[in-house]
Amino acid sequence: MTRASGAASRVGGDVASRGQGMSAGGGGRSGDLHVPHYIGGTWQRSAAAELVDVINPATGELLARTPLASADEVDAAVHAAVSAFPAWRRTPPGERIQYLFRLRGLLEEHLDELARVITLENGKTLAEARAELRRGIENVEVACGIPMLMQGYNLEDVTPGVDETLIRQPLGVVAAITPFNFPAMIPFWFLPYAVACGNTLVLKPSERVPLTMRLAMELIERTGIPAGVINVVNGGRTAVEALCDHPMVRAVSFVGSTPVAKAVYTRAAASGKRMQCQGGAKNFVIVLPDADMQLATQIIADSAFGCAGQRCLAVSVAVTVGDAQRTFGDAIAAAAASLRVGDGLDSSVQMGPVIGVESQRRIETLIDQGARDGARVRVDGRGARIAGRERGSFVKPTILDGLPPTSTLAETEVFGPVLSLVHADSVDQALELLARSPYGNQASLFTTSGAAARRFRYEAPAGNIGINIGVAAPMAYFPFSGWKESFFGILHGQGRDAVEFYTESKVVIERWSRQETRKF
Ligand code: NAD
């Protein structure tokens, strides 16, 4: 297959039409379920023998098969990126961003098509898929500011007649490895900044949701960006390890679970790479008795159960202080029980399935464990059956009331629609519970007290803080922070951190003799 402009709508149509009765074209092209790589400007069929089924989690329908790339296929993608780098690096930043402006337009134009593919392969509702795409597009927009963002700084006469300048230069080939829960947004946390800064990229999307970036890559191809600047390799652990070990890859951005984030961080650092690895989470929210309970309930329900709880910023433990135990407990249980669960393509549905049968079983086992640990299963989402979607992987919203704060579950990432309620007698005690958590992705507080809010902002040990906010997802012009076991590295994704991560600073100190000027 060669570069094929105009293919996007065809591919989008093929994949997006599934779930409406059409049976062909899962991998992106009619009759072929095999998801191709995109290397050096061409679509390539992988020779991999091992394939992972891509399943629509709402219906159990097979959508496509992801090949698990070998180290040789990764090497081919890296070499394509190496070849493209010298010319791309010399392309002026103002020209580089023209491709991103075009991409922004194409993403807007194909937003509904992309959203449909996200819903089909990930399960989230169409509204959630559209919202995710908006966040992705926002990153493309911010990266269009690279001609200013990438500027260095200088100072004349650091000593008489000597000037010093800092310039930023691209690293070379960089890699991004992304998880299943945001098939579009997370690749776009990295892709636009990496290439706007003058690097060339190898992206490895999650093998469970390869179709979104398959379609997005067709749109990227239509921008006319030179071959080899952006490459997509499909695969799993072998591909990730090959990227970590490859001597020509200068930096790796990773998002996924904590054990893998740690392993990738260690492995890539061993070969001298620059790393940013975002890991898992267990997010706490503290609800004070003076909070606006109606607002808190609505926002916390959306955080805990939106995207079926499969957001790294989903609230997982609600710590109620004082009277909030009763008022919030009753309200959140009612909200959880009333959510309409089903196929995300149905516009009346408020929560879709979890990513697959294995996840469904794992989440149900964790609910069992919470009950064994002493929590009351106040709203029970186990054994969910959705009429007409009997082969889907559904867990309904679940509330575990009175989870002992020292139980294993209080420190275990569930990554599903399960909210545990824990009670604390005071703000001090609530903050202590937060401090115990091994994770530090997000912490939120609901209150109407400015003093309580300031104390929380000051003391809460997490990278993303929400005050009366349930999903404290930083806008693209701020870094997506994360502390403790939720992040390994120094510079985060998005914003100015991304520009620093994807560039090397070079300091130039210059002295020119005054005698020289007399020649002219
Ligand atoms: P995952 O760790 O299973 O997979 C992430 C990526 O790593 C995928 O591309 C996968 O192919 C690869 N991978 C999987 N196992 C590997 C191994 N053993 N060695 C090397 N590579 C491997 O994560 P997931 O299930 O796709 O995503 C969910 C997780 O991601 C959750 O823990 C969630 O909290 C986390 N997450 C974190 C953030 C954040 O910003 N901190 C954002 C989104 C998701």
Walkthrough of the structure:
- With 520 residues, this protein is an alpha/beta fold.
- It folds into two domains: 2-279 and 486-505, 3-Layer(aba) Sandwich (Aldehyde Dehydrogenase, Chain A, domain 1); 283-467, Aldehyde Dehydrogenase, Chain A, domain 2 (3-Layer(aba) Sandwich).
- It contains 17 helices and 22 strands.
- The strands form six sheets. A seven-stranded mixed β-sheet has the order 14-15-16-13-12-18-19, with helices on both faces. It has a six-stranded mixed β-sheet with strand order 9-8-7-10-11-21, with helices on both faces. A three-stranded antiparallel β-sheet has the order 5-6-22.
- Helix 3 (93-109) runs antiparallel to helix 5 (126-143), helix 5 (126-143) packs parallel to helix 7 (187-196) and helix 11 (293-305) packs across helix 12.
- The longest helix is centred in the N-terminal third of the chain and has 20 residues, at 71-90.
- It is globular, with a radius of gyration of 24 Å.
- Bound molecules: nicotinamide-adenine-dinucleotide.
